[in-house]
C-alpha cells in the first residue's frame, strides 16, 4: 500500500492536480458538500422527515438576518423556512443527500449497463454490434426527461401515488440510469474496437483464453479512462435530470425533499417575497453541479494528452 500510494502521489494526475487551482478549489467545495449532506443527521438543526418538526405557523419565515426572521430559533431558521414550516437549511442538507444518492446511483446503473453493452458490441462485432448500436441510437433519439416522465407516469397509474412516494428514489435511479446508458456504450465500444486489434489480445486468443476472460480481464481495464471522465459529467447530468423532473412534479415528492423539489415548492412564492425558498436550494444545486463539472473537465484534460493544456 505505501508503494502504491507513492506511485499515485508521483503520477501525472497528481502532478497536474497540484498545479491546477480550479481543480483543487472544486474538489474542496465538493468534499465539503458531500460531508455536509451525508452527515446531515448529526449537523442539521432539525429533521425535516420528522412530523414534529413541521410548524405551519413558521411557514415562509424569512432568514434570521432579515426583518421578520426568527433569530431566537438559531441555529434553526438561519436561512428561513419553506412553505411547510420546515427549517430550510436542514431541508437543503437532506435534499442534497437525496440528489447525490440519485445521481450516483443512476450513474452506477448507466455504467454497468453501458459498459456491458459496449464491451459486447465492440468485441463480438457483426450482427451483435449492429443490433446493440441501433438500440443505442433509438434510445438516444428520445429525451431523457420524456422517457422519465413516461415511465414515472406509468408507475403512478399502475401502483398508485403512495407506492411511488415510498419507492421514489430507486425508481428515479432506474429511470435515469436506463435513459442514459448509450453514452457509456458508444464510448466503450470505440475503445474496444481499438484495443481488440492489439498484440496482447491476439496473444490471449492464441493461448486459448475464453472470450469472457479476454473481455473482462484484458480489454476492459484499458477502456476505463474515458469511462471515469464520462462518469463525473454524468453524475451532474443525472442530478440535473432529477431536479428537472422534481421541478415538473414527476420527481421526488414533497414529503421527501430534494433540491429539485425544493426549487419547485418555492417557485410559486418567488415573486411574492419568499424568494429564499427557491434561491437558496437553486444556488446550492448550481455550486454542486459546477464543482462536479469542473472536476470532470480537469479529468478529461489530464487523461487526454491532446487536450491537456500543460503538454
From TrEMBL:
Single Gene Ontology BP annotation: transmembrane transport
Family membership: Belongs to the binding-protein-dependent transport system permease family.
Taxonomic path: Bacteria, Pseudomonadati, Thermodesulfobacteriota, Desulfovibrionia, Desulfovibrionales
Transmembrane segments: 21-44, 98-124, 136-155, 274-296
Name of the protein in question: Putative binding-protein-dependent transport system inner membrane protein
Domain ABC transmembrane type-1: 96-296
Protein topology in the membrane: Multi-pass membrane protein
Location in the cell: Cell membrane
Keyword entries, A-Z: Cell membrane, Membrane, Transmembrane, Transmembrane helix, Transport
GO annotations of cellular component type: plasma membrane
Native source species: Megalodesulfovibrio gigas (strain ATCC 19364 / DSM 1382 / NCIMB 9332 / VKM B-1759)
Amino acid at each position: 500500500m505505501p508503494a502504491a500510494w507513492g506511485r499515485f502521489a508521483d503520477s501525472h494526475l497528481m502532478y497536474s492536480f497540484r498545479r491546477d487551482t480550479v481543480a483543487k478549489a472544486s474538489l474542496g467545495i465538493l468534499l465539503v458538500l458531500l460531508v455536509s449532506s451525508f452527515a446531515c443527521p448529526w449537523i442539521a438543526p432539525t429533521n425535516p422527515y420528522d412530523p414534529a418538526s413541521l410548524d405551519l405557523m413558521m411557514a415562509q419565515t424569512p432568514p434570521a438576518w432579515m426583518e421578520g426572521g426568527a433569530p431566537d430559533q438559531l441555529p434553526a431558521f438561519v436561512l428561513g423556512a419553506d412553505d411547510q414550516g420546515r427549517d430550510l437549511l436542514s431541508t437543503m442538507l437532506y435534499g442534497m443527500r437525496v440528489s447525490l444518492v440519485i445521481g450516483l446511483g443512476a450513474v452506477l446503473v448507466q455504467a454497468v449497463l453501458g459498459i456491458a453493452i459496449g464491451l459486447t458490441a465492440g468485441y463480438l462485432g457483426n450482427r451483435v454490434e449492429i443490433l446493440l448500436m441501433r438500440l443505442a441510437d433509438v434510445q438516444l433519439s428520445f429525451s431523457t426527461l420524456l422517457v422519465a416522465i413516461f415511465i414515472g407516469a406509468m408507475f403512478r397509474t399502475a401502483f398508485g401515488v403512495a407506492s411511488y412516494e415510498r419507492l421514489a428514489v430507486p425508481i428515479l435511479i432506474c429511470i435515469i440510469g436506463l435513459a442514459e446508458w448509450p453514452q457509456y456504450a458508444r464510448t466503450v465500444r470505440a475503445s474496444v474496437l481499438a484495443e481488440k486489434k492489439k498484440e496482447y489480445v491476439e496473444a490471449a486468443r492464441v493461448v486459448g483464453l475464453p472470450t469472457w476472460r479476454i473481455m473482462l480481464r484484458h480489454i476492459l481495464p484499458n477502456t476505463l479512462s474515458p469511462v471515469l471522465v464520462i462518469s463525473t459529467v454524468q453524475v451532474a447530468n443525472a442530478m440535473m435530470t432529477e431536479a428537472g423532473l422534481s421541478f415538473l412534479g414527476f420527481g421526488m415528492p414533497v414529503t421527501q425533499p430534494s433540491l429539485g423539489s425544493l426549487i419547485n415548492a418555492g417557485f410559486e412564492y418567488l415573486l411574492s417575497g419568499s424568494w429564499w425558498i427557491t434561491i437558496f436550494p437553486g444556488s446550492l444545486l448550481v455550486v454542486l453541479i459546477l464543482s462536479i463539472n469542473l472536476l470532470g473537465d480537469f479529468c478529461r484534460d489530464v487523461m487526454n494528452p491532446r487536450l491537456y493544456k500543460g503538454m
